[in-house]
Structures are given as structure tokens and as C-alpha cells.
Specification:
Blueprint: H1 5-10, E1 16-18, H2 27-35, E2 39-43, H3 50-63, E3 68-73, H4 83-92, E4 97-101, H5 106-114, E5 118-123, H6 126-135, E6 139-143, H7 158-168, E7 173-176, H8 182-190, E8 195-198, H9 200-203, H10 212-220, E9 226-229, E10 237-240, H11 243-253, H12 260-267, H13 269-278, H14 301-323
Parallel strand pairs: 1-2, 1-8, 2-3, 3-4, 4-5, 5-6, 6-7, 7-8
Antiparallel strand pairs: 9-10
């Protein structure tokens, strides 16, 4: 058991959260993380309809008696999904932890609060964190530039961003992006976070509902093997370097740049989903962060979480011993 404001707020044993992940945040993974003492999130928009989300929540509940949450990603779209109906599906089904991301959850806060739900808002900048805090969210999850998904346009790595956010916000802070080890958890806590959120590391676990070849691709990649796409459209995304993402970057870089329509066939969500399901690594976008450089195995979620807690304690103890002049210096440095 670890005790922070984040574990108190979420009712979990360990301050380790599995963030929303399109096509990956299904009951198999969310329940495994929650059963292991962390907090799993189902991803609402992975389900084709609010009704399907209700069924997925019921399925997850049949797999764990621990708390889990629902991620609602609110993205700019010409044909937006029925966000409020997804929210209703989560709340009516008894889900009491929400992760919001993409843009301000302002319009949903009153309804969520009325139902007694806790809102963790995930964002990429201190100014957005402060605005969400003013709007009434209960915790902030902040994504550093290392993160998979949309790390924003400010390019601030976790080392500075977590500390800057911890200094600024009063609600509990969750560090996200580039975390996949106990040492990373220790570092985030030392910078003022009270928990961590992970995406990519949980993709490389036994329970992640994606093809083994994708997990192996993450395992074999180094920290240099991600691409930043949509930079020129000011909607940066970090993905695994592969044939498709290389082509997107090349198209964006050509003289005169490109319109979204030029790359749309390459980046279609359905292609990414097919890649994850069939293991055809080069056939679609595979969202992944720089933490792939730290992925050395494909453990169960329970093995990963227990190891992180163990390694975090050890890293903190070693650090303290060095400051107290009790430890022996590392011989390999
Ligand atoms: N974040 C969201 O808020 N909504 C999503 O739909 C979403 N999809 C993701 C899909 C994948 C495959 C991955 C790896 C991440 C996704 N993310 C999404 C971001 C994660 O929730 C998390 O913020 C991010 O992965 C943290 O960085 P890390 O990968 O270094 O742990």
C-alpha cells in the first residue's frame, strides 16, 4: 500500500494509473490494472456507441471488483461523437472516476459532480491545468513531451513540466509521459507528483488486447524510434516510427507543406486499429512514447506494477542513502 492524495482520491493501493487508450483501453487491460492495485481506465470512444460502453463497463465489472474509470477524450471534430451520451452511460453504470482529455471538460463537470464522480483531467500545459482546476476538476494528469498521443505544442519534457505543474496546482498531480519504471515513478514523486499515468508501458503487457507483434515491436524499439506527426497542423502526435508515420512526416515536410486531406488516408483510425489487431506494424499509426526505450519485457500488469513499486522504493532508499553518506557509490559510473 502506498499513501498519497491520489491513492486516497481514487481508492487504489498504488498510485499507478493506466490512461485512456484508443483501441487498447478495453476491459481486459483496465481490469488487470485495477486488480493489480492500480487504476485502469476504459476508453469510451473505443466503443462504437454509448450502449456498447455500458456493456463494456458491465464486462469490466465482471472481471474486477476494484475501482476502474472511463476516459472521455474530447477532440475537435466536424462530426463529434455523442460525448454527453457516453458520459451518461458511464455515470448510469455506476462509474465514479472519469479521465477527461483533449479539451476542457467544463461542460461536463456539473453533471459528473452531481453524480458524485471524481474527474481527473489530463492536459499538456500548466496554463491548461490551472484552467481545469478553476473549473473544478479533482486532479490533474499532465503529459510531458515524451508522451504518446498528443503531447501538445510546447515541447516541455516531464522533468520541467511535472515540477512546474506541482508548483502551480493545488489539486493532486499525476505525472504522465515517459514513465514505465520504478525509477520513473520515484522521479515523478520527487518532482511533486502524487501518482503516475502510463499508456505505452501498459501496451507492452500480457493483458493488453493488441497483437503480440505490436508488443514485440515496442520491445525491440529504442527511445529514438518515435515520430512526431501533425506538427505542421499544430496537433502534434507521438507515434511509433514505422512506414506510415515516416510517410506522414515526409508529406508534412515537403515544400509548401500539406493539408490534412493529403495525409488523411494514411492516418485513418481504422488503419491504426487494424495494425493493432493484426500485428501489421507498418500498416497504420501505432501510438507510442519515448518510453519504448525502457521496455525490456512483456510482463503481466501485476508483475509490472509490483516491480515498479519495489524499484521505486529501492531508488528512493538508494538516493537517500547517498545523501546520508551511507550508500556505496555505484561502481559502474
Ligand atoms: N489519451 C487519451 O486521452 N485518449 C486516447 O484515446 C488515447 N489513446 C492512446 C492510445 C495509445 C496506443 C497510447 C499509447 C496512448 C494513448 N493516449 C490517449 C495517451 C495515454 O493515455 C497517456 O496519456 C500517454 O500514453 C502517456 O504517455 P506514455 O505513453 O509515455 O505513458
Amino acid at each position: 500500500m502506498v499513501h498519497t492524495r491520489v491513492t486516497d482520491l481514487l481508492g487504489v493501493r498504488y498510485p499507478i494509473i493506466q490512461g485512456g487508450m484508443q483501441w487498447v483501453g478495453r476491459a481486459e487491460l483496465a481490469s488487470a490494472v485495477s486488480n493489480a492495485g492500480g487504476l485502469g481506465f476504459l476508453t469510451a470512444l473505443t466503443q462504437p456507441s454509448p450502449e456498447a460502453l455500458r456493456e463494456e463497463i458491465a464486462r469490466c465489472r465482471s472481471m474486477t471488483d476494484k475501482p476502474f474509470g472511463v476516459n472521455l477524450t474530447i477532440l475537435p471534430s466536424t462530426n463529434p461523437p455523442p460525448y454527453e451520451a457516453y458520459l451518461d452511460a458511464a455515470l448510469d453504470s455506476g462509474v465514479r472516476i472519469l479521465e477527461t482529455a483533449g479539451r476542457s471538460p467544463k461542460e461536463f463537470i456539473a453533471k459528473a459532480k452531481e453524480a458524485g464522480a471524481v474527474i481527473v483531467h489530463k492536459c499538456t500545459a500548466v496554463r491548461h491545468a490551472l484552467s481545469a482546476e478553476r473549473a473544478g476538476v479533482d486532479a490533474i494528469s499532465i503529459d510531458g513531451f515524451e508522451a504518446a498521443g498528443h503531447p501538445g505544442e510546447d515541447d516541455i519534457g516531464g522533468l520541467v513540466l511535472f515540477a512546474a505543474a506541482a508548483k502551480a496546482v493545488k489539486v493532486p498531480l499525476i505525472a504522465s509521459g515517459g514513465i514505465g519504471t520504478g525509477q520513473g515513478l520515484a522521479a515523478a514523486m520527487m518532482l511533486g507528483a502524487e501518482g503516475v499515468n502510463m499508456g505505452t508501458r501498459f501496451c507492452a503487457t500480457r493483458e493488453a488486447p493488441i497483437h503480440e507483434d505490436i508488443k514485440r515491436a515496442l520491445l525491440n524499439a529504442s527511445e529514438r524510434d518515435t515520430n512526431l506527426i501533425f506538427r505542421t497542423l499544430r496537433n502534434t502526435g507521438r507515434v511509433l516510427k514505422n512506414r506510415i508515420s515516416d510517410e506522414v512526416v515526409a508529406t508534412e515536410m515537403r515544400p509548401g507543406g500539406c493539408e490534412f486531406a493529403d495525409i488523411q488516408p494514411l492516418v485513418a483510425g481504422s488503419r491504426g486499429r487494424t495494425a493493432l489487431e493484426t500485428g501489421a506494424v507498418d500498416e497504420g499509426l501505432v501510438w507510442a512514447s519515448q518510453v519504448i526505450g525502457l521496455v525490456d519485457d512483456i510482463p503481466t500488469c501485476a508483475e509490472l506494477i509490483e516491480r515498479m513499486i519495489h524499484d521505486c522504493r529501492e531508488a528512493m532508499t538508494r538516493g537517500l542513502a547517498a545523501f546520508n553518506n551511507l550508500g556505496s557509490p555505484r561502481s559502474d559510473l
